[in-house]
Amino acid sequence: MTRPLHILLRSSWQTVNIGDIGHSPGVLTLWEKNFPGATISLWPEYVDRGVRPMLQRRFPALEIAEGTIDPSTGLPTTPELARVIADADLLVHGSGPGIIVPHHIEDWIRLTNGKPYGIYAITVDPLGSGSAEQAVPDEGDTIARQRELIAALSANHLPLRRRRLLESAAFVFCRDTLTLDYLRAQRVRQPRLEFAPDGAFGIDLRDDAAAAAFLEAHGLREGEFICVIPRLRFTPYHETHDVPATPRDEGRAIVSARHREADMEKLRVMITRWVRSTGLKVLVCPEMTYQVKLGLDLVGDRLPEDVRDKVVWRPSYWLPDEACSTYARAHTVVSLDNHSPIFALTAGTPTIFVRQPSDTIKGQMWADVGLGDWYCEITETDGDTLAERLLSIHADRAAALERVRHIMDGVRAAQDRSFRIIKEFLSSVDQSERVQNRGFCALPAS
């Protein structure tokens, strides 16, 4: 009798962003679908704010092994983490903006005597707007311009540590083709270097009761309201985490303040035309904690009086399960942040994503999945253009829904391709070798 495969997912990077929360259940769902008999454990960074019970409702058999690696001893800080590291056959670094925890991959290699690891659906941004050395950070650029800048980089631009981790991995999947093209141009020696959509595209979470209660309380009827998600050019993490601002934080705040009013006004123009043209409502809601307050600013007295009573402000942060259930009932989701559009598409709802130039090259993923003219750069559009695209969705709802189905068919095909590659790798790893490699990780001192 063969032992079930044991996968350890390193993910759950933060809980102040429903997109980062959504990576883990998305990737867990994909592994569950493709390896139904496997044991899957999660090694998270954070599972607070109600994330742990949300995950356990959806994945009742999931072991969540919190802890880290003590730098003084080189050992896991909890027995749970030590046990899953010792038992797991494969470490998977989950979806995100890069190799978030290179030290933990290196710890995995050391503690397990070199058991395999893979990297699933990440961005590697070689440009990185807003470096610590700049008083006022680089404000970024369009995806088209970023592609030109990346193409001009030298072939030895990739840092050596990152190169080694990418080349030693069993597989590396990039969530955008700008990352994929960059790594190939850097001549990364990785035979399983391919594209896979952001891990959040695998999400199937729902909290229908919470969503229905909120919508009923605010007079929002299914299919008769849009969701709008505002965003600043840079996330004010010092405010989010209630810590003193660094010079880098202060520089980013300057950039955000410079563009805040113009960016919000484009959304106000779109909202005004939507309400006046359709008579339908608007829900302003957050993807990140700080966007709750930003949303209030968006819907304040700057909106015309005849529009204001059709706009609902969500006064609290939420989790991906309630967000997904809300987006599933929405007419369309219009977002300046990246992951609400992902949740909308997985729920079968049309979406418009408006990218800001300070965001990373992950914006390329929207062209990769075929979003087409539902994607736009905020520096190249205005509120009336956004309104026209939104109203065109309203004018031919059936065509828009079919377009969503087509996009998601392509996403699922790419997911399937990625797991065929993973299955081919795992089938090459002999069962006796997996059993032999168990138990290398020592327990922490009691």
What's the architecture of the largest domain in CATH terms?
Answer: 3-Layer(aba) Sandwich
CATH homologous superfamily annotation of the largest domain? 3-Deoxy-D-manno-octulosonic-acid transferase, N-terminal domain
**What general outline do the C-alpha atoms trace?**
globular
Strand order, main sheet: write it out. Answer: 3-2-1-4-5-6-7
Helix share, percent: 40-55%
Fill in the CATH topology of the largest domain. Rossmann fold
The CATH class assignment of the largest domain is Alpha Beta
* Mean residue pLDDT: 94
Distinct helical segment count: 18
Backbone CA Rg = 22 Å
Structural class: alpha/beta
CA distance, first residue to last residue: 35 Å
| Strand-residue proportion | 5-15%
According to DSSP, the number of beta strands is 13
Largest sheet: 7 strands, parallel
Kindly give the count of domains: 2
- Which stretches are low in confidence, meaning pLDDT under 50 for 5 or more residues running? 129-134, 439-446
